[in-house]
Amino acid sequence: MSLVNMKELLAKSDATFAVGAFNVSDMEMAMGAIKAAEEMEAPLILQIAEGRLRYSPLELLGPIMIAAARQCKMPTAVHLDHGRTLETVRLALTLGFTSVMFDGSHFPLEENIAKTKEVVALAEKFGASVEGEIGSIGGAEGDMASADIQVTSVSEAKRFAAETKVDALAVAIGTAHGNYKETPHLRIDRLQEIHEALDTPLVLHGGTGLTATDFHNCLVNGITKINIATASYDRSAAKIKEVHQAKPEANYFDFSEAISVGTYENVKKHMEIFGLKGKAGLYN
Questions:
Q1: Helix (H, G, I), strand (E, B), or coil: what is residue 97?
Q2: Other residues' Cβ atoms within 10 Å of the Cβ of residue 279
Q3: Which structural domains are found in the chain, ordered by start?
Q4: Which of 26, 81, 167, 214 is catalytic?
Q5: C-alpha span between 174 and 205 (Å, rounded)
Q6: Active-site residue, 143 included
Q7: Could you give the CA distance from residue 183 to residue 198 in angstroms, rounded to a whole number?
Q8: Tell me: the pLDDT tens digits for 29-68?
Q9: 230-261 pLDDT per residue, tens
Q10: Which own/partner contact pairs does 54-58 have at CB distance under 8 Å and 24+ positions apart?
Q11: In the chain, at which end, N or C, are there fewer CB atoms within 10 A of the end residue's CB?
């Protein structure tokens, strides 16, 4: 069990479940996510987005995430989410991350392919897997600029997967990062078309705010990895406020525990929706 390659986790996913990838920004969030995984007996992906590194430097948080994964009783991958530069990707790999994402979706297709191929070649030297992205997923990830949704093209997805040979591909089907300002309209039809055209595991970003039905429709139509970030941050912040309201004299350690509990509650909730209960047994 413990620290594994993300590719190994996604290989077992089928139409009955998708692996949850949960962003963390400190030790408390990592502890909460691991508690949920162990209680649910579920595989886990711990990740941090490059856009959050100004708050949680990778040199400091990365080793904590890796140590947490190694101690977890369930199979756990450690992943760089939305890596934007080769320098950050290289640092994550050097620290021991078992998977990295290079997000070149803001580049023209040819440049995205060329840069992603560089990352794939680099990751191969570390025995790590790579996630790429094509199309534009709306909203903003961390401090990255907001982007409009641009639904992934089937033909471009086929070309990208064939030329880069990524281990997972994030596709844009109408989701957005952060909290939705209006009800999202998912292009399940486009997801089906991409799934039928590719053998590459598909990834859903912008999971916060989707309904259980939305998630189910995605995982039965080819999604194998689902990212959750904002919901965990929001639940942890709400938990801190609850603690302060109930106990005005609360100290640092009360709030620290609140962050861990808030993350635990959110991760467990989504693991149940993703059909992950008991699925760690598949990796024995």
A1: coil
A2: 23
A3: 6-283 (3.20.20.70)
A4: 81
A5: 10
A6: no
A7: 28
A8: 999 999 999 999 999 999 999 999 999 999 999 999 999 9
A9: 999 999 999 999 999 999 999 999 999 999 99
A10: 54/143, 55/25, 56/25, 56/26, 58/88, 58/91, 58/92, 58/95
A11: C
